[in-house]
Amino acid sequence: MIIDTHAHIFNEEVYQTYTKKSAGKINRILTLHFWINLNDIQPTKRTLEEVLSFAETKEDLFVIAAINITYSVKEQLEKIKALLENKKIVGIKMYPGYQHFYPSDEIVFPIAELCEQYNKPLIFHSGDVFDRLGTAELKYSHPIHVDSLATHYPQCTIIIAHFGFPYLMETATIVNKNKNVFTEISGTIDTPSQDIVDTYTKDLKRVFSYYPAIKQKIMFGTDYGGEHTPLNQIDSYIQLVENVFSTEEQDNVFHKLAEKLFFS
Ligand SMILES: [Zn+2]
């Protein structure tokens, strides 16, 4: 039983390659909306409606809505509130590095309040950026800025995506300090490389030797985006979890925590 808490599956082709590669091991997949397709040389638009109607056709696919701060947050929140109410989405994602704002900025407050109200996670893309356009800035995606928001909204569940890679230790500090902050392991193994799996294994073990308590606050995720992208690994992430966590802990990483945060 595994829940993938971080994937980008928006069409049949990618869904099929994912299903084939995961070979029945993954039971539920969260697909995280992003309003453009960054893998296109000329990025094409992708609406939330498209993502929702595709996910409707799949029993194991659940949508995380993205908020684009270029447009009216108020209008987007009205729409998202209705989707939360009707259980069409299971969380909200924001992209600070790509959009030049900090998670601690005021613009995020009403979003955190809505997440609190519906008891659904607010996810921040954190750390390294996939930036073909050359416009993203790392200072915004540094996980340190989650701390302030988490402190002011202790009832809002916050997820630092990608363990904030490469800021693993910084992410660990914030997850350890704040009861309401969690993280996941997706996105870092971007080539089929045993070397990366081994190094990531060592790095996580190192982090957990300083912060053993946060082992309970980690979730499985792949960042799978299709075979034509560098993010096409599934088994490597399963192997990573098996390397780092005991059999008992694995249940929590693979599905229990995600069930609690997204589906309860
Ligand atoms: Zn992603």
Q: How would you describe this protein?
A:
It is a single chain. With 264 residues, the protein is an alpha/beta fold. The chain has a single domain, classed as TIM Barrel (Alpha-Beta Barrel), CATH 3.20.20. The protein has helices at residues 12-22, 48-56, 73-85, 96-99, 109-118, 138-141, 144-152, 168-177, 194-210, 235-244, 247-263, and strands at residues 3-7, 28-32, 36-37, 44-45, 61-66, 89-94, 122-124, 158-160, 181-184, 218-219. The strands form two sheets. An eight-stranded parallel beta sheet has the order 1-2-5-6-7-8-9-10, with helices on both faces. Helix 9 links the parallel strand 9 (181-184) and strand 10 (218-219). It starts with a strand and ends with a helix.
Bound molecules: zinc ion
Class from helix and strand fractions: alpha/beta
Tell me the number of helical segments per DSSP (H or I, 4 or more residues long): 11
CATH C-level class: Alpha Beta
Spans where pLDDT lies below 50 across 5 or more residues: none
Largest sheet: 8 strands, parallel
How many individual domains? 1
CATH homologous superfamily (4th level) name: Metal-dependent hydrolases
Summarize model confidence as the mean pLDDT: 96
* Count of distinct strands: 10
Proportion of residues in helical segments: 40-55%
Beta-strand share of residues? 5-15%
CATH topology: TIM Barrel
Radius of gyration: 17 Å
Q: What would you say the CATH architecture is? A: Alpha-Beta Barrel
Distance between the termini: 17 Å
Order of helices and strands: EHEEEHEHEHHEHHEHEHEHH
Shape: globular
